[in-house]
Amino acid sequence: MHETATAPSTPSYAGTSARKSESLPIELSEVRREIEEVDRSLVELLARRCRLARRAGVAKEGARLALLDPRQEAAVVRRGTAQARAAGIDPEGVRSVLWRVIALCRRSQRG
Hints:
two-stranded antiparallel sheet, mainly alpha, Chorismate Mutase Domain, subunit A, 111 residues, elongated, 3 helices
């Protein structure tokens, strides 16, 4: 018999049946809590990356370099997809995420 815990209040999304009173197995609740921690860490890392991008932008301006560096961006994506393969996760999914992160950081460089 599985122990259960009450799920925290979550918004209902199309195609889901999330309810405030829904009971979840303890294991699922713990996994969701860990996922939430990872998500929080990801946001903190994104904020750090944006701050670094702003610093890089200032350094580029000081050196009179272009803000956009397509070769560097492509190298970042190649490195990330190689890491994804080594980690056993979808490299195309990681490629897509990295291009979005790069776009976010580009906007940070521009202020």
